[in-house]
Design brief:
Distance between the termini: 39 Å
Structural class: alpha/beta
CATH topology of the largest domain: TIM Barrel
Number of helices: 13
Largest sheet: 10 strands, mixed
CATH superfamily of the largest domain: Aldolase class I
Strand order of the largest sheet: 3-4-5-6-9-10-11-12-13-14
Strand content: 15-25%
Bound molecules: S-adenosyl-L-homocysteine, iron/sulfur cluster
Shape: elongated
Radius of gyration: 21 Å
Number of strands: 14
Number of domains: 2
């Protein structure tokens, strides 16, 4: 008889979830720990390969459970080591994940939703609308598949993914439970063991959820600010009408206050839009707005996409903005755009465009890479599988 009930996907379960699962089966807690290591350290998805788990239990797991990651539509590896995956998401198009090696650091940019409901005016994911939340298995599955692409690792903690940024598609705080569950798995010593300062969640400013996050899990925070006054921010990030700057800054302060001294800084992301938010007057306002919160500022040169309606600020304006902030004691960096010289450089993934053109030659030109930390890179045309 075929299964009426769906199998439980163990991939998206955190340590407490797995412990509860095994206790329910009448098994000891340590089984959960064994399985977690098999899944996330050895990247095994076949219960038969879990040699220190008894035959009977393996057979039982086979019947009721599975370890199922999202389906990879394409994997690209560029000459400089950057990798990009596009994942098919059941019933809802595609999402992408990008890995950027940079010396000893390897940063994975992970998606949290298909599309996004926040609808920021300069963001192609926002323009695409919202399709659905990713499950915790689909979120951690991006890390799992990326880790797996580097081959098995012998020891805990020894893998090229040193940092994770929740800066792919979607607003992570609007998919709170699944994102927190996935980040718990990333941090767990029995899986990826990534430290709190190397996991960064980026939000457009969902104030109540920022408080909830600091109650539940210790990770680094980035806030997509993009404007130094409410009038402009209402236009660029419509969520500002609900949670205006004063409330957002108060939430940042609370978040920071609860952190240990070394990790108090919040990263403020500021996209540079020509003639919109890039004058020295904006920089002066920004300094005032940020006066009460310890911050690092990351200026992101806007990444154009078709029909965006915005342009990237001129280099001299970005440099002047950067200089003003640094001269005034605000540690500010400019996000580098490694692929500036080639037109496929950077912007965003539009899932539905991806869907229509996948496996064709055209998508390489049409699908723009999402901007995450140093995600502006070129994928070698020849490396597309
Ligand atoms: N939804 C979350 C996380 C994903 S967006 C957030 O908004 O923070 C990751 C970063 O890329 C955000 O700072 C976002 O504002 C920025 N971004 C979006 N579209 C961009 C574009 N076209 N060019 C440059 N940065 C962009
Ligand atoms: Fe959503 Fe972030 Fe894009 Fe805004 S910038 S629409 S919050 S993904």
């Amino acid at each position: 008889m075929s299964d009426v009930t769906e199998k439980v996907n163990l991939l998206g379960m955190s340590r407490p979830d797995l412990e509860a699962f095994f206790l329910e089966l009448g098994e000891k807690k340590f089984r959960a720990h064994q399985i977690m290591k098999w899944i996330h350290v050895h990247q095994v998805d076949d219960f038969e390969k879990m040699t220190d788990v008894g035959k009977k239990l393996r057979a039982r797991l086979q019947d009721i459970a599975e370890i199922r990651a999202p389906e990879v539509l394409s994997e690209n590896i560029s000459r400089d080591g950057t990798r990009k995956w596009v994942f098919q998401v059941e019933g809802a198009g595609a999402v992408e994940t990008v890995f950027i090696p940079d010396g000893r650091r390897g940063t994975l940019c992970v998606s949290s939703q298909v599309g996004c409901s926040v609808d920021c005016s300069f963001c192609s994911t926002g323009k695409q609308g919202f399709q659905r939340d990713l499950t915790s298995a689909e979120i951690i599955g991006q890390v799992w598949l990326a880790a797996r692409s580097f081959g098995p690792r012998s020891n805990l903690g020894e893998h090229p993914i040193t940092n994770v940024v929740m800066m792919g598609m979607g607003e992570p705080l609007l998919n709170f439970d699944n994102v927190v569950r996935a980040m718990r798995i990333m941090k767990d010593d029995l899986s990826y063991g990534i430290s709190k300062k190397r996991i960064t969640l980026s939000t457009s400013g969902v104030v109540p959820m920022m408080d909830k996050l600091s109650d539940e899990l210790d990770v680094s925070l980035a806030v997509s600010l993009h404007a130094p006054n409410d009038e402009l921010r209402n236009e660029l990030v419509p969520l500002n009408r609900k949670y205006p700057l004063a409330e957002l800054m108060a939430a940042c302060k609370r978040y920071s206050d609860r952190k240990a001294d070394r990790y108090k800084s919040i990263t403020m992301e500021y996209v540079m839009l020509k003639g919109v938010n890039d004058t020295l007057e904006h920089a002066r306002q920004l300094k005032r707005v940020l006066a009460s919160v310890p911050v690092k500022i990351n200026l992101i040169p806007f990444n154009p996409f078709p029909h965006a309606g915005y342009e990237r600020s001129a280099k001299k304006d970005i440099l002047a903005f950067h200089k003003y902030l640094n001269d005034n004691g605000l540690l500010t960096t400019i996000r580098t755009t490694r692929g500036d010289d080639i037109d496929a450089a950077c912007g965003q993934l539009v899932g539905d465009v991806m869907d229509r053109t996948r496996r064709s030659e055209r998508w390489k030109k049409e699908v723009f890479l999402r901007s995450g930390e140093q995600l502006t890179t070129i994928i070698d045309e020849g490396a597309v599988k």
